[in-house]
Amino acid sequence: MRTILTLFILSAIVISGYSQQIELKGQVSIHNSKYNTGNIEYVKDAYVSAPFTTPDDTDVEGRFGLEFVGIDAGTEVKLQVEKAGLEVVNEYDLARVIIGRKPLLRVFVIEKGKLAQAQTELYNISKQALYAEKDALIARLKASEAESKAAIAELEKRFGQEIATRFEAEELLQQKVANLERRLPEFAQELAKANLDFASDLYIQAYEHFEKGEIEAAIKVLDEAKLDQSYQEAVNTIAKGNKIESIGKDMQEKGLLQIDQIVESFKLKAKSHNLLFQYRQAVAVYEKVIRILEEVKGKESLELSVVYHEIAATYRGLGQYAEALGYDQKALVIREAVLEANHYGLAYSYYLIGNTYVGLGQYEEALGYDQKVLAILETVLEANHPDLAKSYGSIARTYFHLGQYEEALGYGQKALAIDEVVLEVNHPSLAISYANIALIYHALWQYEEALGYGQKALAIGEAVLEVNHPHLAFYYHSIAASYHALDQHSEALSYHQKGLAVREATLEANHPDLAISYYYIAETYRTLGQYEEALSYDQKALAIREAMLDRNHPYLVVSYHSIAETYRALGQYEEALDYDQKGLAIREAMQEANHPNLATSYHNIATTYHALGQHVEGLGYDQKALAIREATLEANHSDLITSLNRNRSDLITSYSNIVVTYLTLGQYEEALGYGQKALAIGETVLGRSHPDVVFLYHKIAEIYRALGQYGEALDYDQRGLAIREVALEAPHPDLAASYHSIAATYRGLGQYGEALDYDQRGLAIRETALEVLPLDLAASYHSIAETYCTLGQYEEALGYNQRGLAIRETALEVSPTHLAASYHSIAETYCTLGQYEEALGYDQKTLAILEAVLDRNHPNLATSYGNIAVTYHALGQYTEALNHHQKALAIYVAMLDAPPPNLATSYTNIAATYRALGQKDRAEEYEAKAAAIRKN
Questions:
Q1: β-strand 105-111 against 21-30: which pairing, if any?
Q2: Rounded distance, CA 631 to CA 596, Å?
Q3: What phi and psi values does residue 655 have, to the nearest 5 degrees?
Q4: 843-857 in b/e burial notation, b at 16+ Cβ within 10 A?
Q5: Helix (H, G, I), strand (E, B) or coil at 56
Q6: 95 in helix, strand or coil?
Q7: 821 pLDDT band (50/70/90 cuts)?
Q8: Cβ(227)–Cβ(262) under 8 Å?
Q9: In this structure, what DSSP letter does residue 42 have?
Q10: Fewer Cβ in 10 A, N or C end of the chain?
């Protein structure tokens, strides 16, 4: 069976109504034989065939003639040229041969394997030139300040965008190099196919400069004025040939050959400009090539489609994806009209358009073209072909951008399966495939799997890369992120430090990538509770960013909020608020009013205000965050689901924050409304077993307890516990939280035995679990103390309360209201034991905190005044008791929604104090007020 040397489809053939004979003549020669040896070497006995004609063999001069009968002049056919051991170089020229063409059809063949060898050599030359230009520019960026600024200005001009710092310039330059490097194989293939036997002197001179890596010299040789003049001469020659019948054929052939030479020269010049990152100059040259091809070869030339894609790639280098898309689509129109539906060239056009849509951020459109590519490649390629792996990888990438991680994983694994077959075990590309899979697993919250693939990537990297290769830093930090997500923070810290060591060894002290490593380490130290260390690394990161970045750069916001978080953990809330507000100021200046990042800043500031006990201010920022999240995420919309999965349910978090704030403010109905909103979304989007939903079950139970609706509270508590007992292994700290919540509900129901049983289950977990926070243990002690109080076992209650207080008084991150709750519990216990002096001391500590952190009309403040009043009464200090009772009453009267029983109790307490003071009339006055409320 003969080897088919061209894969293009025959375009539509128009059959004329009468018979005519048209001869197509051509000549087959060895590619670049004259350039290499001084003489053209023709090919004898090559087999030439085409539809609608009898095949022919070439003679000693490589000539052949095909006679077409009954076919109109102007019809396009495809030719096939075959000879053992040889392959066709200019297959595009054979794809659409025009019947009746006057110029001799030249076919160039080469010994099999030599074309690939030439392509490899040209690829290496191009790569060396590209890297030499990159290195020269980076050297300029690292030189004196003046030279660095000049280099940045030059790169701004080349890339068509502003560049803030030399580090940003370096990063952008590396991106451009990576993009161009991906195009080099195609560039080398086309250059290797250029025939120098029939090339112009200018082209040969430029080519020889290029072979030596002298790219600027090649550009200089290809003088556009000379090329334009040569083009005009060629056009004039063709025009003369049309007028002179006898010698016109030779003149036309000469003119067309000259135009081909000019086109190749312009294309070489454009590619050389690209290698020097001179994108705008390359665009100008390509546009000239397009005009020539449209004039000479028509607007449906396959050669024209190639140039359209090349100019599109250049526009992508400039970041002008809309312009790139326009040219890509022009190329596609040609190829869809000319090529078979499953042709590889069509797949390549789809692939390029898909990439352009990715650059535009239009991922749905990109996915459509990605899938068209795959449909063709699965038809024409073997199952393990590397191009199939690339296609699967492209689809995986697009699904990842769309947030459809399961689909991304499926295609990523298909790509990896091929890479594992066709690549060597330690191939760097295989490491990248493993790293991509790890990234997808991380997005799916499947951290064990992410860790496994991250370690595979690292194993290859450590085996084949230099000790301090930048990719190793990426692999180390990626593995650390998986360990962090698995709550194995010590391991995470170890890998983050390895990543930092690589960067400190290879980067300058103020390089932005170092700031990223410092930030990761700060975050890990913070999680480990080592806040001073965290703050030190936070400040290192910030120092670099403030020195090197624009004052409104988003990375500065990250550092400000990270430092704020560390200060919050240290209990230094004023400092935290200062950094939070710095971050917010940047975001408000730079981002749209409803940007999700603004919601994050508002949430952080709200958290700090709550920690300061300024809950009204905190609530205001909570509501700002919620307004953004409600505006940008429609309830139950697919985008909402994606966002919740990716951002750990930000909308639920906003609702939950407001729930906690209203609980703190004693506005329980409002808290319940937001709690139910959060739960409705959580159950729909995340599922009832999700940890955030379980948290909401227990939080709603807490609200119902505050409202005195203990039956409803128990229902929600039991829902949360049932899920955790199935999902978690004992002893898990979250189980302890569920047990204590149920204990509180049973206390409200008066079932103290059940309450004590659940309290002790919770305490047993927190006293033995490895990673229990001290404040959680304190909460367990206070919960058991409360149950012992209700059982009348006050000595036991006092012991547990004091254990809890000892923890809270020494913890940096304790909130003032929790400390006040400890003091209050101990005061209540002492009061019950009749030890009123001790009780009064703790009551006053409680009041001092609440007066500092609560609104002056907060119901909890009224309760504190009432408690002190009762203690003063028991001590016989009735005037002091009356003073505090009246303060409590003033709050209840001021509250529009004050519960009548509280108001009645306040009147009764005041009446009892007046009686103790011997003021019978005033006592009866307040007793009447209390009776009137209770009657109603």
A1: parallel
A2: 10
A3: -60, -45
A4: bebbbebbeebbeee
A5: strand
A6: helix
A7: confident
A8: yes
A9: B
A10: N
The rounded distance, in Å, linking the Cα atoms of 262 and 181 is 26
Measure CA of the first residue to CA of the last residue in the chain; give whole Å: 105
pLDDT interval class at 288 (50, 70, 90): confident
**CB contact at 8 A, 293 and 308:** no
Per-residue pLDDT of 639-697, as tens digits, reads: 333 333 334 456 677 777 788 778 777 788 888 888 888 888 878 777 788 888 888 89
* pLDDT value for 272: 80
Helix or strand holding residue 47 (H, E): strand 47-49
Is 71 within 8 Å of 79 (Cβ atoms)?
no
pTM score = 0.64
pLDDT tens digits for range 97-120:
878 766 788 999 999 989 888 888
Say if CB 813 and CB 529 are below 8 A apart.
no
Give CA torsion, residues 124, 129, 133, 135, to 10 deg. 40
Task: Please report the beta strands in 408-556, taking only residues with DSSP state E, as ranges in sequence order.
Answer: none
Alpha-carbon torsion 300, 303, 309, 310, what sign?
negative
Provide the phi-psi class of 672: left if phi over 0, else alpha when psi is between -120 and 50, else beta: alpha
Given a contact cutoff of 8 angstroms between Cβ atoms, the answer to whether 436 and 446 are in contact is no
* Residue 91 CB partners (closer than 8 Å, separation 6+): 5, 6, 7, 8
Backbone angles phi, psi at 68, to 5 degrees: -110, 125
Among residues 745, 748, 808, 739, the alpha carbon closest in space to that of 773 is found at: 808
User: The tokens of 642 are what?
Assistant: 């994606």
- Token digits of residue 604: 């952080």
Distance, in Å, from the CA atom of 154 to the CA atom of 37, rounded to the nearest integer, reads 43
Q: Name, in order, each residue with C-beta under 8 angstroms of 827's C-beta and a sequence gap of 6 or more.
A: 838, 839, 840, 841, 842, 843, 846, 867, 871
Distance separating alpha carbons of residues 298 and 288, to the nearest angstrom: 14
Report helix, strand or coil for 887.
Answer: helix
- Residue 340 has phi, psi (to 5 degrees) of -65, 160
* Cα radius of gyration (the chain): 39
Q: Chain-centre distance of CA 807, in angstroms?
A: 41
